[in-house]
Amino acid sequence: MTKKFAFILFISFYCQSTLSLTAKDLVNSYISVPSGEQGFNYRYSPPQKMENGKVYPLLVFFHGAGGRGNNNTGQLTDAGAVNAFEKERLRLKRKSHIFAGQVPKGEKWVNTSWNLLGHRMTKISDSMKMVLEAIDIYIQNPSNQVDTNRIYAMGLSMGGYGTWDAIQRRPNFFAAAVPICGGGDKSIAKELAHLPIWAWHGDKDTVIKPSRSLDMIEAITKAGGSPRYSEIKGRGHNSWVDCWKSEKMWSWLYSQRKN
Fold first, then answer.
1. Residue 130: beta bridge partners?
2. Who contacts 90 (Cβ-Cβ below 8 Å, separation ≥6)?
3. pLDDT-based confidence at 14, cuts 50/70/90?
4. Domains in the chain and their CATH numbers?
């Protein structure tokens, strides 16, 4: 083995290890609130820099099924969310709070089957009830300096359902939403006609049919709304990859403000 080749192998191994440690460190940089204290696992992070007298936006993230559990880390590592947020420098460039609750194993944000072509809003799930209560506590704490006119909802897959569910239960609470490969209750879509929404879905998604997103977009548009919809050609279930790479999406989201 030449010295040059050995050096390349060392650098490759070092970089991979650093990336792994960085992902772990990123999760640990979020403040952990275990279920023993609040009855619900969640992590949050304020912006990296805050000034007295100013308020800052809040992103509420609804993780997918892979993030469920009781370790209070999976909700941020699911689908590489924490890496995407850090790559976009949400806490620094966007000066954003990030809040992510964790659904216990076997539970859901929305108690409905993901293979259905439609559903009516069900009784609020325990996880949704607790995360909304936890968010209320967070924003009501004046030391957090949350701009209540700039609270955003985003989620993927199971969390895409969660995003639709949260904004339909609280249509005047959020300033904008980005539901990714999820579905909502199109029968009450008119309640969202005023809300800026940008939905994403892969046209080859076989886990959650693209029609779940498209039906919501069409119903909201029919009710007088102007939602955005990006259906990614050739993409399967992981349309969050395209969503998170879109600088246009991030700029659009953080420009939204309640009137």
1. none
2. 59, 96, 98, 250
3. very low
4. 31-255 (3.40.50.1820)
